[in-house]
Amino acid sequence: MKRIETALPGVCIVEPQVFGDHRGYFMETYSTKTFADIGITNAFVQDNQSFTAQKGTLRGIHFQNAPMAQAKLVRVTRGAVLDVAVDLRCGSPTYRQWVGVELSAENKRMLFIPRGFGHGFVTLTDDVEFCYKVDNLYSRECDRGIRFCDPSIGVQWGVENPILSEKDANSPMLADSDCNFTYGE
After folding, report:
1. Domains by residue range for the chain, with CATH
2. pTM score, two decimals?
């Protein structure tokens, strides 16, 4: 595994070693030892998978408030997305800054997103399968979202009229949310 830092400290791209030949390929997608060797020591407790049928569908910006905040390790097994992490930690030097990374079945990259960050993605192809590990269980009471088009964040999604869920279309702007992340906690 190779760790590639992004502009947001803590958010990193993980590139697996892929062994391929005429039959196909093999790669290790997760090992506690291998990930600890590159500085990711979170104990993941839940795996999730989503399918998105149509290109231009946007999911996010999602997070869970403390005490049920989640770090995520995300990857795409079919299709491609622009995956986005947003620093939501009040007081952080990178507060409200975001980073976008293309994840695809072809490039096999993963993105690690620590607690305190929002997460979202827009599909770049039809028929996207998206997998992610989280280090805390799902909590309906702590589940939150920020409007994808919040001008105080300014994510450049690359799509003018994304397909949205009702929940994502009606998420509050960051200034109106009850996001409770604080830098250094």
Report:
1. 7-14+43-176 (2.60.120.10)
2. 0.96
